[in-house]
Each structure stands twice: as structure tokens, then as C-alpha cells.
Amino acid sequence: MKMIFPGFESPESAAPAPAWGGTLRSIAARDLDAVAALEVLCNTQPWSREALKTCVATEGRIANVAEREGKVIGYAVASNVADEGEILILGIHPDARRQGAGRALLTGVLADLAQAGASSVFLEVRYRNAAAIALYNALGFGEAGVRKGYYADTGEDAVLMHVFLNRGKKA
Ligand SMILES: CC(C)(COP(=O)(O)OP(=O)(O)OC[C@H]1O[C@@H](n2cnc3c(N)ncnc32)[C@H](O)[C@@H]1OP(=O)(O)O)[C@@H](O)C(=O)NCCC(=O)NCCS
Predict the structure, then answer these.
(1) Residue among 24, 45, 97, 129 to mutate when testing ligand 1 (max atoms within 8 A of CB)
(2) In the chain, what's the furthest Cα-to-Cα distance?
(3) Which residue has the CA at smallest separation from atom 12 of ligand 1?
(4) Atom nearest to 136 CA in ligand 1
(5) What is the pTM (predicted TM-score) of this model?
(6) 75 by DSSP, 3-state: which?
(7) How many angstroms from the chain centroid is the CA of residue 1?
(8) What residues make up the domain containing 127?
(9) Domains: count for the chain
């Protein structure tokens, strides 16, 4: 398998990733309106603009956007505490899905987490969110548990998922 960046090895890195045709960069203050609008489209319990603003200003946060043709089409926010990362939110505009942007964004965030010292990354995902679970599986996450009734709006369970980073490194 090919290392795609230090500290994180995608299990599918041998397969060519789809060319989604955009760029990734850190979030900027000017992106907050666009990201808040995307959150409404992507998340049934969306973070507000203020919550996003506070979160990305917090130490240890990694917040990136995916941009194509001058438009923000995706976002991901993660936290890193000591050597443990957590994916907090991730979304791609509905019109831009299945074009590789989610994979690119998540791969980039995992690289940033590895660089920040994370050796392990967790996330929670709705039990019925097959698209997100498929993406996480494609990037090496496995199921680490179930949180019963985790989501307040529907009472749905959360699947706790986990991946080790640094798998390509020799001990
Ligand atoms: C989950 C989400 C971020 C995926 O983004 P995306 O840009 O469509 O994903 P990609 O095109 O990069 O797909 C990468 C891989 O993920 C899997 N995948 C993504 N969407 C899928 C779907 N609808 N069904 C099955 N597999 C899917 C596939 O393995 C895919 O690889 P492939 O296209 O070569 O088969 C997007 O669907 C989304 O924004 N959903 C709403 C918000 C959300 O659920 N966020 C996660 C909360 S935990």
C-alpha cells in the first residue's frame, strides 16, 4: 500500500481517487456564512454560525473547507486533544456529493490530525447514515461501539467509529 501522507495510510490508496477538481484549505472568517448554510443542508441538528465561529477559534481545532470554482462546497471540523483526534462535523453540498470531495476533505483532516500529533481518531455517526459510514470505512475506520439513543432529535443510535493513524510507521 502506498503512503498518501506521513502518519496515515488509506486502505484504498492503491485505487485511483476520483478527481473532484477543487482545493482544500483552512477555514477563514469569510467562510462562516457559507459553512453555516451548508450545515443546514447537511446536518439535521446544524451548528449555528456562532457555534462554528467559537469552535474554530478554539485551540486544538482543525477546520478545513473544500472549494471549487470559487464556492465552498464542503467543510470538516476536528479536534485534537493530546494524541486523540475527533471528527466533529463534516458535510458536502448535496449537488457535489459522490465526486470525491468528502474523501479528499476527510483525508486532508486526518493528515492534519496526524501532523498535530494524533495517533487515534474517533467519531460518532448516525446508525442509518450509510453514505457517511461507507466513507469512513473506505478511509479505514472501524466500528468501536454503539451509543444508544445518542441523537436527541430522533433518538437514533450513534455508531462510534475509530481509526489508528501512524499505521504506516514502524515501531
Ligand atoms: C457523507 C458525505 C460527507 C460523503 O461525501 P461525498 O463527497 O459524497 O463522498 P465521496 O464522493 O468522497 O465518496 C467517497 C466514498 O465514500 C463512500 N460513499 C460516499 N457516499 C456514499 C453513498 N451515498 N453510498 C454509498 N457509499 C458512499 C464510497 O465508498 C465513496 O467512494 P466511491 O465513490 O469511489 O464509491 C456526504 O454524503 C454528506 O455530506 N452527507 C451529509 C452530511 C453527513 O452525513 N456528514 C457526516 C456526519 S457523521
Answers:
(1) 97
(2) 44
(3) 100
(4) 16
(5) 0.91
(6) strand
(7) 22
(8) 23-164
(9) 1
Integer-rounded Cα Rg, in Å, for the chain is 15
Nearest C-alpha neighbor of 125 from the set 150, 92, 94, 108: 150
Residue found under cell 467562510: 31
Position 11 in a domain: no
Q: Show the ligand 1 pocket: residues with CB < 6 angstroms.
A: 42, 90-92, 97-103, 125, 129-132, 134-135, 138
Catalytic residues: 124, 136
Task: State how far the Cα of 24 lies from the Cα of 169, in Å rounded to an integer.
Answer: 25
pLDDT tens, N- to C-terminus, the chain (171 residues): 333 344 555 555 445 556 899 999 999 999 999 999 999 999 999 999 999 999 999 999 999 999 999 999 999 999 999 999 999 999 999 999 999 999 999 999 999 999 999 999 999 999 999 999 999 999 999 999 999 999 999 999 999 999 999 754 544
Residue written as cell 451509543?
Answer: 147
In a domain, 3, yes or no: no
Q: CATH number, domain at 114?
A: 3.40.630.30
Secondary structure tally for the chain: helices H, strands E = 4, 7
What are the cell numbers at 133?
A: 459510514
